[in-house]
From TrEMBL:
Residues 37-106 form the HIT domain. SUPFAM superfamilies: HIT-like. InterPro entries: HIT-like, HIT-like_sf, HIT_Hint. This is HIT domain-containing protein. It comes from the Bacteria.
Amino acid sequence: MSDDFVLHERLAADCVVLGDLPLSRVLLAKDGRYPWLILVPRYAELREIHHLSEADQQQLMRESCALAQLMEQSLSPDKLNVAALGNMVPQLHLHHVARFTTDDAWPGPVWGRFEALLYDDLEAEAARWCERLAALPDFVSA
């Protein structure tokens, strides 16, 4: 990790910081249409997974799998979409989106389909996720 890590402005505007895992900052997307968490490795100017050291690649995979398992256990989605796109935000970030056959965009992608639908109570939703995330080893809430 680097001391000069700064969260990309678009991620900062569209998400709430929940806390940190050993490698990554954990974000909650403000779009209440879909349960949507994001991992951002805390390195400045990082764009691609393969730019991480092998040890950090493995750590990112551990964190991603732990987050995916937590979302699966908490939400019982029909499908969990995990992706690192970076077309709009070049900073490396890994989306984790719980999908349901009843959601607005099913079966298509969630990106660009609809305007974000903000949570009725974003603070309460963030607190729920922080409580769930506390079960993960080494999670430190914001």
